[in-house]
Predict the 3D structure of the following.
Amino acid sequence: MPQYRKYMTQALELAYKGAGWVNPNPLVGAVVVRDGEILAAGYHDRYRGPHAERMAFDYADKHGIDMHGATVIDTLEPCCHVGSQPACTDLILSHGITRVVVGSIDPNPIVAGKGLRILEENGVEVVYDVMRAECDAINRHFFHYITTGMGVRMFFWTVMRPVQGFSCIASGFASPVIS
């Protein structure tokens, strides 16, 4: 797995570029490599915009890059459902990818390991948990939202404020109650 750390670090750097633009979706970066060469890369750059994998595959398609036999390094499990974007698992399979290296499993109940199972059932090798702590950390707000149904500010307002004696001021940020 050490051979994937360099590429996962690059995928994480790409994912950070979506910060502030993709909410409530997760930050995701993807790097596609073959034989030590980066073929394409992408990140989820805006809400309802193309997913990281689609951005990478669109680049490859536009530039005539053959992806067969390549490895996708993905900070988050590829989606397997159709929403505002098509399923990334379908893109991966249609481009002949033979391995997917993933940092985090998507906790969203409509994905939650299903994307990786689909890939494995179709002969794609899956490598799990590469730099998982780092990949989980960039999406802690998304993970909180998906598992609780509340954004971090809402969680603070409904749970922490009464417990810790905080008040939310007009800006939406918390401040201590001073008497």
Q: What stands out?
A: The CA atoms of residues 69 and 98 lie 5 Å apart. The helical segments are 2-16, 52-62, 88-94, 114-121, 132-138, 140-148, 152-164. Residues 2-16 form the longest helix (15 residues).
